[in-house]
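Question (not urgent): is this output format expected?
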Amino acid sequence: PIISWRLGGEDPLDGISVYDGGDYYHFVTYGLSELYDKESEDFDYSGYGFELTLKLKKSSLKNIEEELNCICGILQTIARITFNKGEIFNPFEYLYTGQTVGIDAKQKSNITGFITVPDDKFQTLNTPNGKVEFVEFVGVTNKEIEAVKNKELKVKELYEKLGSGITDYNRQSVL
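Got this back:
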């Protein structure tokens, strides 16, 4: 961000890196854990104890720069929930956005919410400031998130049905 959250800025994350994962872009946040000095009193975990990740399928993107910026904005919004409300996101939870339009920049995709899983590309880090886990957000359709929300399906079951942690704007519901 141009102005850090610590200095009154609106974006809580210090940064988001976007890596080339082959057929997807891999987003990794920085700032939910303690990057500099140990500030929290919990010596087991660094900051909130996690960072967010997301894998976005390349072939589902029409305007790459616009979609990368859109996902960065979504990750900042999710981090804002943690910074403002203390909400900790763990694997095998869901984030119901309440929206029925797509999360993509043009709001055309079927993807409207998220489930969380452990990111299979990272292991828990043990840092001098405590542990950091990597929680991957996986885009899901409204029908899928409603099934989880209504307890018709568990997050782990939905994740198994998806068969992948890659968010694909072009995919149809697996239900």
